């Protein structure tokens, strides 16, 4: 039997077509916008410390995003991407993972990295491409990465991280580790071939991986209605033999709960899971984008009312763990810290010219050594044209 | 020593690599129980189990994406792409991911353990899609190494070095020679260094440069030329990226002439890169224009494959023209 995955087949004798209506995908909601729980909703594993850590990350990301968009407008950095509106999705899910589980992000998950403890200074070094950037100033702003925090360095091409997540998770399985990869992507990226390759391979190889889709309604300007005709992303996983769940992506408790359950299945049974978080990108795609050209203020307002940060704040206040006064105080402090760190990082020089040719290979081959030495001779001849690096050459 | 064909040498290299290092894992389409469509991975699943030698779904981009992830984790994946003609769905994973992993992360992450094996080249009546030589698509990508062996001894030593090299390596295997090329191969473990060309035969009148299956063709052409009294120095480049400029420069400074031959189309072919570098480095030593004997700038044909191929006669004629220039 070549298709052993289908033990029982219902036989019919007249043509019978199936369609999306044969598969109903429910959506998990736990927390209401007023900060109270839905009746009968079960809380995730969460205590005061975890709740406050998640919320602290929310406030930090709001402060960071707000300041860095302004910094881009002022010409201090070349590019930025906010995650405003989607904080519950990436931060709530990362909070369900073990600290040594690998995170493979797309590019709008700085919250996940902040939750892991990436220092504010390191965010700034990366954004200013200076010599303290762990990525040695090579990538555009927001392409963070941290070996120490198990956060794979971001690459711009979409969905390439998905089949890689399957390979990485296969490594966990080979070594019988109790770990799980979480891999983030958007609903637009799910149109890439790599998405389909990855989900299929995860189903076939049965590896501990969570595919986390932030369905935020838009791929730059293209609405999801022009991205796919089916019922979102979750049902696709089922067709590949992968379990799926849809959650309210602005409901941090639902995201946390779903991811905790998914991680348990992934680690205990090598069961891959796809989580589709329904959310909305309240900001522009990037600082190079202007959403007024493709969507209405009214639509944005509707989603602003579902703000995940506000929703969690009200829950925390209801719990007696937080207050409006403390909220204002904390946000103000974070804004000041971000401003100070930014001013510090922009004074740090660019990486040395030698870093141009390191890490292409483990050891620079002769042709790269030659090209670097030719380049240095040229910079010495025209130092005014290359101010970022010329000043350093004089020291040598 | 034992007599092996090129496939047996590759299978032997994989077996040694897997038995000495349990981080080495082999996979690809039909690679598992069946041992690959050419049988390069025969018996590896029996010996090392299904978790270390296995079939993948039919998705080249998935295979290389998976391999990148596994390599990032510290494993040494040896991924097979069944024919080099089918490597293109994986082009993004190779060019944008494998090649740039170390650089973009500031050496925090790398896929140095990755080796991609793939049979390439014509001469098996394969037409457009079982014959291509896509090496030049990859030689323009910093971060990759590109290696092509010419015979069983070379294949084993270069493959072992590729698997153990701490950079992603694309290892193209000359499938026309899989069974046709046989020779004495040491049974034990040995490596042939990457990035080093080999002077296969010394000579004084002209340098003849090639790699992979083309070396057999060039040996025939050289034999014809030598009958005419032309002394040829024959070099196997072995690694195309990074390539051994100095060995070729030293040879051309001695002979004053250079012929480069490959099966891939001429325009954008790797011979163009070598020509440019050699004229920069050896301009005053050259006694004739650098000659390229290559495939035509067409898709790989079926009925006319003999006519398309840069065979020994085309090379023989080019050698004479260069010497008589």
Outline the structure in words.
- The complex is a heterodimer of chains A (396) and B (325).
- With 396 residues, chain A is α/β, with parallel strands linked by helices.
- Chain A folds into 2 domains: 326 residues, 3-Layer(aba) Sandwich (Rossmann fold); 41 residues, no CATH class.
- Helices cover 42% and strands 8% of the residues of chain A.
- Chain A has 13 helices and 8 strands.
- In chain A, the strands form 2 sheets. A 6-stranded parallel beta sheet of chain A has the order 1-7-8-4-3-2, sandwiched between helices. Chain A has a two-stranded antiparallel sheet with strand order 5-6.
- In chain A, helix 1 crosses helix 3.
- Chain B has 325 residues and is an alpha/beta fold.
- Chain B folds into 2 domains: 184 residues, Rossmann fold, CATH 3.40.50.970; 127 residues, Rossmann fold, CATH 3.40.50.920.
- Helix content of chain B is 36%, strand content 20%.
- The relative contact order of chain B is 0.12.
- The mean pLDDT of chain B is 98.
- At the A-B interface, helix 5 and helix 6 of A face helix 3, helix 4 and helix 5 of B.
- Chain A: It holds the Pfam family E1_dh.
- Chain A: Keywords: Oxidoreductase, Thiamine pyrophosphate.
